[in-house]
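Next comes this protein:
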Amino acid sequence: MQPYTGFASVYDMFMDNVPYEEWAEYICDLLRRHQINSGLVLELGCGTGNLTRQLAAKGYDMIGVDNSEEMLSIARDKSENSDDSILYLCQDMREFELYGTVSAAISVCDSMNYILTEEDLLKVFRLVNNYLDPKGIFIFDLDTQYAYQEVLGDHTIAENREEGSFIWENTYYEQEMINEVNLTLFIPEQDDSFQSAKMNNDNAGLFRRYEETHYRRAYTIDTMKRLIEEAGMEWITVYDAYTVEEPKEDSERVYIIAREKWQADKLYVNKE
């Protein structure tokens, strides 16, 4: 099964410990540091739209791009009865298309780690550069090699809840710098038998099993800087996540900031 298909229906439940409000404050602070106080902002790998909606509430006009229709369906449902005016697009970030340029682009939740080759990552960066306004800002997070090798490694993470259970088995391939995750989900069937079992505090309800495999790649900071510059952008800085300090040897996640650098051969995109 493709990543984030079966997982989509329970993604928000198992990610309820993620401090999206704090993430939004941090990203807004970084945007403001670079004079992006309003305007159109693109989020790549927006998932179910949790951060997208937080940034929309802070005054940014949001576009969310994700390649999982299942995740986007949930995101659209959240916005159905609101006036956030978020545009969600089901597109692969390696070949996404917009109607015009944006003031900034962001990407969180290790979405860039899911791009497994330098060639594909360069495609993403070139597209971001193409769709950024002059001097527009690109902010994204990245899981570090330390996180995959020393923290996740070959560990297994499991969680059991009334609403469902998961087993998250990690394997890290050091030479390839690839983290493989085999995700097994047990999601209860929402039928009469399950509801009856739940009311009687019984475990006899039916559960459907889903299996997904996720691959994420670790990249060095030097590699990211080289690819950013090869894509035509200006490298600004890298921070230890949720700070404005330099990364440490044991940093598990970093934030990278780049800026659009106008070039004569840059593809012009009309705003409509």
Summary: The chain has two domains: 6-144+218-260, 147-217. Residues 6-144+218-260 form a domain with the Rossmann fold fold (CATH 3.40.50.150). The radius of gyration is 20 Å.
